[in-house]
Write a structure and sequence with these properties.
The complex is a heterodimer.
Chain A: H1 5-44, H2 49-64, H3 67-77, H4 82-86, H5 90-93, H6 96-122, H7 125-133, H8 138-168, H9 180-191, H10 194-223
Helix pairs in contact in A: 1-2, 1-6, 1-9, 1-10, 2-6, 3-6, 6-8, 7-8, 8-10, 9-10
Chain B: H1 2-5, H2 8-41, H3 45-60, H4 63-85, H5 96-122, H6 125-133, H7 138-168, H8 180-191, H9 194-223
Helix pairs in contact in B: 2-3, 2-5, 2-8, 3-5, 4-5, 5-7, 6-7, 7-9, 8-9
Classes of the chains: A mainly alpha, B mainly alpha.
């Protein structure tokens, strides 16, 4: 057993080709996850039980089960039903990429809505009351008073969730998607050099997470520039 | 439902395997977390560096990749070592159960390191000084003074870590452990009912995570029983 640096150098360009899919998966599913998360948040804070209870159940289910199981239910499970195979969504659900995006979005929506709810509940009541006293309408209060502060409060937790999304995209390789981990696994099955290839892939992931962590850190600094520390 | 009745046994034993993995790796997670936190808080600069490298590496790489490195890496190392002694061996590996438990415990341990570190810092330094003044040894201070108090602070986050540990156990089926996800795969191959079979896996995980949440709530109550009425 030898540690071959040449092999690492050879395999890095191949893995960077898989990086494209990883990044696409990351951005698409965090975008859809954020949109759905906001809808879920609005349902939960609406104060109407027929909206908040389904949202609660959704969050409970998606936070209580492993992402891998969710991916398998969607990728292997959905084609069992005739009506899904005949629906207009079939071209998306037939592809592993569509399934991975869908399951990661649904999963991240549950976490994101809880994070946003934490931010929303962290906003001081007094500000809300001050807005009311100033005669701002309900919508203005929500958009111009609560939201900016809630976003600031939720951002650290959201950046953590984003980082765990990066790591979750690796699971897409289990449904034959050729993301970075998928490419690494194929190279390993050919060369049988797990240390070199997997560690090289791990370092690329580390660089990506570091990059996004820095980005979020700077963004956090920017949006909290009015707060006195 | 008729399809299902044949598979209950397999699901049950699969769930038992999941619980076993969970039990083993929770213990390892606590150990790694305590070692990591002690290293991060120690005065030794080398220990601090090592612990930082540990948390950065394991929190930044995908769980699946860590698992694959541990399983296939250990297999290739062991195979080449045994080749020296008996050249006719083909393949030696650490059982997926142990490789998997160890890998996920290391991952969650890196998160627990940060939690425990924060909790140790939350213990009032006056209490530690008081126990030093009373002549209690460092080891006794650690186990009888620091740990009972940091435990209270660490529990809420540690509960979350236990949940993610539970959910990470699903990954071990990828390296060939015969747990519930593996059972579902087999059952699907026979019955052609993938949705049903994987949904049962999801529901088993959901019930286990629910129980863990309730247990953590109970533990928090026990840990905080002296603080009744305190803010």
């Amino acid at each position: 057993m030898t540690f071959e640096f040449l092999l690492i150098l050879e395999s890095i360009p191949k893995m960077l080709a898989g990086l494209g899919i990883t990044i696409q998966l990351l951005f698409l599913s965090s975008f859809f996850g954020l949109c759905l998360g906001i809808i879920l948040l609005l349902m939960r804070i609406s104060g109407r039980w027929y909206l908040s209870f389904p949202a609660f159940m959704y969050i409970y289910f998606f936070r209580g089960t492993p992402i891998l199981v969710q991916i398998f239910v969607i990728y292997h499970g959905f084609p069992q039903f005739e009506f899904i195979r005949e629906s207009i969504f079939w071209p998306i659900l037939r592809e592993p990429f569509g399934c991975a995006t869908l399951s990661l979005s649904l999963n991240s929506a549950a976490y994101v809505s809880e994070i946003l709810r934490g931010g929303y509940l962290g906003v001081e009541k007094g500000l809300h009351e001050a807005g009311m006293a100033l005669g701002l309408s309900k919508y203005h209060r929500f958009f111009f008073v609560t939201t900016p502060i809630a976003v600031r409060l939720a951002l650290p937790a959201y950046s953590n969730d984003f980082i765990s999304m990066i790591k979750a995209t690796a699971l897409a390789s289990t449904i034959t998607l050729m993301d970075m981990t998928g490419v690494a696994r194929t190279i390993v099955s050919k060369t049988f050099a797990p240390y070199e290839i997997f560690i090289a892939a791990a370092i690329i992931y580390l660089i990506i997470t570091w990059f996004f962590q820095r980005g979020f850190g700077l963004f956090e600094k920017r949006i909290s520039r009015y707060t006195i520390r | 439902m008729a399809d299902l009745s044949v598979w209950w046994d397999d699901y049950f034993w699969g769930a038992m395997t999941v619980l076993k993995v969970f039990g083993v790796s929770v213990i390892m997670t606590v150990i790694f977390g305590l070692i990591g936190a002690s290293a991060k808080l120690s005065k030794s600069r080398i220990a601090h560096k090592i612990a930082s490298a540990y948390t950065i590496a394991f929190r930044g790489t995908p769980e699946l990749l860590v698992l694959l490195i541990f399983y296939f890496g250990s297999a290739i190392t062991l195979t080449s070592i045994t080749h020296i002694f008996s050249p006719e061996t083909q393949f030696v590996d650490i059982p997926p159960f142990w490789a998997g438990s160890f890998a996920i415990a290391l991952i969650v341990g890196s998160y627990a390191t940060e939690t425990f570190r924060g909790a140790f810092l939350g213990v009032d330094p006056g209490v530690v000084e008081a126990s030093q003044a009373l002549g209690i040894s460092n080891v006794h201070t650690f186990f009888y003074v620091r740990i009972p108090q940091m435990w209270r602070l660490a529990l809420p986050s540690f509960g979350n870590h236990m949940l993610s540990l539970m959910k990470d156990t699903a990954l071990i089926s990828i390296i060939g452990l015969e747990e519930i996800l593996f059972v579902a795969e087999m059952a699907t191959a026979v019955t052609y009912k993938p949705f049903l079979m994987y949904m049962i896996v999801a529901l088993i995980y959901l019930s286990i995570t629910t129980v863990i949440t309730l247990v953590v709530m109970g533990l928090e109550k026990i840990a905080n029983r002296h603080l009744e009425g305190a803010p």
